[in-house]
Amino acid sequence: MPVVGSTTGEVMDQLAELGLAPDLIIADYQLAGGRTGAEAIEEIRRQCGRNLPAIVLTGDTAPEHLGAARRKGYILLHKPIGQEHLRLVLGSLLEGKGAART
Hints:
three-stranded parallel beta sheet, alpha/beta, 3 strands, disordered C terminus, about 100 residues
């Protein structure tokens, strides 16, 4: 069941209400308030106490973002992303097979 929120607190509150733990995280790179998706991912991982698979979506093609995502173990996908490509990546992550990074 997808849980969507504007802040990590909102996401964590929804998960607690539903009695769920996340299987993976999808975050946009640029978030409100000058925050980044990488920061949100780290916060959710910390609160969940485990290294959840994560995808960062971005329209920015700067090589430093790709390098930072790889160092943190995230998959970085550049927008716009096709529906089939996203399904493939999600399926690979959820099956524990990993996915091709782009």
